[in-house]
Every structure is written in C-alpha cells, then in structure tokens.
C-alpha cells in the first residue's frame, strides 16, 4: 500500500516515526501521525489545518493530546459514559496521580527490543493508514495523499479525532477546507 502514498504522505508517515523516536515511544501512534501532519509546511492537509486555524494553535493541540494521555487515553465518549454511571474520571486520575505520580495513567515505558531500530505502528495507527486508502478511493483519488491521512484521523473515533474536533477540525470541516478536489492527489 505504501507505493500508493504521495511524497508528502510518505513524509508524514516517516515524520510520525521520528516523533515516536523522539518521545522514546515503543510504537508509532495516531498522535504521532497528527503531529507529523502538523509539521508539513505545504500540501492539502497543511492548507486545511491552516484554514481552520489549527496550525497556529499547535501548542494547544499538543497540550490537549498530553491531557488525553494523562487520562489513560479515554475518549470523550468514554468519559461521558463513565460519568453517566457516576464515575468521575478527573477524580480517579487525581487519586491515581497522587499515589503513583503525574502521568501514571499515560503508560510507562517498557524496555524496547528493537534490533533494527524500527518502531512498529499500533493497531489504531495501522487502521488510520488503511482508512486513508478508503478515503482516497471514496474521493476518487488513485493515490493516498497527506489529506487522506488527515481525514482518516478525523474520521476514526478516538482521542485524536476528539482533539481535532475541539480545535474546529472535524471531518466535515476538514473536507470543506481541503483545497484539492477528487483526483488531484499525485504520486511523487
């Protein structure tokens, strides 16, 4: 499938691996994909994020992602469902962090066993890559561009989609802000 990726999409995937490496993460996540897309200076995803004002709020996006990690990756839907059962996630996080330290639910680092230095992609990150193909085909594009990766992130329910939506970048808003229409993604 990687051969169908445009140069900018390949750059975003490689950038996600670099973000994972800098964070000393065991695997590449959806969050790393979003951060790599925010790094792009040009292309449809950069234009859409800029049009929606997301690129100017990168610090806010990173802060929101860090806060989500503190809650152990629970989505807004998870938190709301638990609140409906009378469970206050904020209170639980505070108690866990009081006992085990700040960020205890964010997941600790395990010793990495990467003989090749290659970090695998998490199942959710792989799902985003697969969904990007479906998004491209659905838009009539033959190649997978960075815009398809961004739309796939926004379409997949979870923390990254919640953070994007909180910053005004829902799937629909992103689609409207995309400068290129169907059939415009080109392999480079």
Description:
Residues 2-188 form the Clp R domain. It holds the Pfam family Clp_N. InterPro entries: Clp_N_dom_sf, Clp_R_N. Keywords: Repeat. With 188 residues, the chain is mostly helical. The protein has a domain at 2-74 and 123-177: Clp, N-terminal domain (Double Clp-N motif). It has helices at 7-22, 30-39, 44-51, 58-70, 76-84, 89-100, 123-138, 146-155, 159-166, 171-177. Helix 3 (44-51) crosses helix 8, helix 3 (44-51) packs across helix 10 (171-177) and helix 4 (58-70) runs antiparallel to helix 9 (159-166). The model is unreliable at 108-115 and 182-188 (pLDDT under 50).
What general form does the structure show?
globular
Number of strands: 0
CATH architecture of the domain at 2-74 and 123-177: Orthogonal Bundle
pLDDT below 50 for ≥5 consecutive residues: which ranges? 108-115, 182-188
Q: What share of residues is helical?
A: 55-70%
Q: Can you say what the CATH homologous superfamily of the domain at 2-74 and 123-177 is?
A: Clp, N-terminal domain
Keywords:
188 residues; mainly alpha; Double Clp-N motif; 10 helices; globular; disordered C terminus; Clp_R_N; repeat; Peptidase
Short description:
Residues 2-188 form the Clp R domain. The chain has 188 residues and is mostly helical. 58% of the residues lie in helices and 0% in strands.
């Amino acid at each position: 499938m990687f051969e169908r990726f445009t140069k900018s999409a390949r750059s975003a995937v490689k950038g996600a691996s670099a973000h994972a490496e800098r964070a000393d993460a065991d695997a590449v996540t959806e969050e790393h994909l979003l951060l790599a897309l925010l790094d792009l200076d040009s292309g449809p995803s950069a234009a859409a994020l800029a049009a929606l004002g997301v690129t100017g709020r990168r610090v806010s996006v990173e802060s929101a992602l860090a806060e989500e990690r503190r809650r152990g990756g629970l989505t807004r839907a998870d938190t709301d469902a638990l609140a409906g059962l009378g469970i206050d996630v904020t209170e639980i996080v505070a108690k866990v962090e009081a006992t085990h330290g700040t960020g205890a639910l964010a997941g600790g680092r395990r010793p990495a066993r990467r003989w090749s230095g290659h970090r695998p992609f998490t199942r959710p990150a792989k799902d985003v890559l697969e969904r990007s193909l479906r998004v491209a085909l659905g838009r009539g594009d033959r190649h997978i561009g960075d815009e398809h990766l961004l739309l796939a992130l926004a379409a997949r329910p979870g923390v990254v989609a919640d953070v994007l939506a909180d910053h005004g970048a829902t799937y629909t808003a992103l689609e409207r802000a995309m400068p290129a229409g169907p059939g415009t993604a080109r392999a480079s």
